[in-house]
Amino acid sequence: MRSRQAAPGRSFAKRFWLQRYLMLLTLPAVAWMIVFNYIPMYGIVIAFQEYTPFQGFLHSPWIGLANFRELFNDPTFTQSLSNTFKISIAKLVFGFPAPILLALLLNELVYKRFKRIVQSLTYLPHFVSWVLVVGFMYTLLDPDTGVITRMLETLGLIGPDTMLMGDEKAFLPLVVFTEVWKNIGWNSIIYLAAIAGIDPQLYEAGVMDGANRFQRIWHITLPALKPTIVILLILSIGGLINSNFDQMYLMQNSMTQDAANVLSVYSYEMGLVLGRFSYGTAVGVFQSVVAFILMYAANYGSRKLTKESLF
Amino acid sequence: MFAYNRSIGERSFDWLNALLMIGLCVVTLYPFYNIVITSFNDPTDAARGGITLWPRQFSIDNYKMVFQDEGIIRAFIVTIARTVIGTATAVLFTAAFAYGVSKNELMGRKAFLLMAIFTMYFSGGIIPYYLLVAKYLHLKGSFLAYIIPNLFNVFNAIIMLTFFKGLPKEIEESAKIDGANELRIFWQLVLPVSKPVLATVALYNAVFHWNSWYDAMLFGSEKLVTLQQILMQIISSNSNVSLAASNLGLGSVTAASLKLATMVITTVPIVLTYPFVQKYFVQGVMIGSVKG
What is the pTM of this model? Predict the structure, then answer.
């Protein structure tokens, strides 16, 4: 309090000197952010340049929107755009409700110890890398030795020697399934936390009024989860244009390229594999602009429809 | 909970629900289990397939092969080094910032926080970032490329900031009266009482470093290959069995078993420490969600 009252009378330098130790703790991270976050943000100007490493982003020639014009005329870009939305929407439709459903079911379990064990086990896949998950897939879906391949063969669902990892039609279901497998438990935590915050008296009143289990879930639990669901939905809609790079890059192979080509992989391959830095950055800029529009639209729609919004 | 009479319908729902949850656990754990039992099976026999519940011909040949592979041993050392060094430095660096901005009297506090939060929503993307690290900072091929770009993380900073804000002020104030400066207070008083939040953030960092392959692919070199990167190379060459032989100079049987054993040894540290550290992971989500 004392320092605040005295502050206006002191010079900037003197105040700074008094806080020199606090500044010593804070400023290194501020400098880090300028270098690793803000300079790359400025670096998107190369999307409007014909960037060469030799000239750098200060001296490379400006070419306006030429990169973007080329982009929209490139059939590979159009393909990756449509794949990105196809995969993201499938993930949203199946992957978004899954953790909500899991949280509701976990909450209905009678034995709390059993509930805790199930929770702990389902969080586990969140902590392993996508490299490992894709390794699991190649092993379990191996056309000769894979356990899942053999099971599906026995059930007559696929023919002998089907290589599921090389099948374009199987690609989308596999992407969605592994995404849900990896994150369903972890993503349910936030809903379980919201459920834990519900006043138990509401449920008791529900029982008194003769509401059955399903009615209590529908009229008490779900409405209590609504704010959380809406916020996460807005964020997911904003993310529709971004795919999980790790998953897509690792799952693709020469046989599934046409189904697996998404914007983030396309940007990486153009920019960093082929060294077309400006062109690859243009893809990234396009993604950011679309993400912003989507998030803004979702937020606007949600504010009108549900009175909940992120900003 | 409260007591009420369960109808037959409710009781059968309970059973079905429990069965469903058991099913979910099996689906979650089986891939891990399958990899472990197949990795302990004789590699030539494993190529016949059909190993579902336990090893058919127990053998540790796969592991002998892995631990003779110099590339894998080197990757193990690199990965452990980056996990230990990367985690320790990132936790301290991020905690220092979080402690600084937890003090209301800090000049420019609001601006620093806004700067940090802005980066959660906007970024320059991967290509400018790559150019910065590789071409301007010249970190490509250096071990520091694994450490310096990962020193700071906004989400972790917010988790720590929330914790520091909740600490009682009295101890710090009395230390100040005794003439201790903020550096000493941070180091000798604040950090020791912040073990839960330090553990949470350390775990997030450690998992990130242990699982990393992308920055190793971008900035690493032959000497700096990480475990996950090696695993990725084995898996992608394995997706084309004929390629595996030529790429690694091995038969396809050997490549397949190398893959399994490598998968197991890269995962064992996570799975073994997991039961003990799980509660810290969940704490992080809770703090993060309150803020968000």
Answer: 0.89
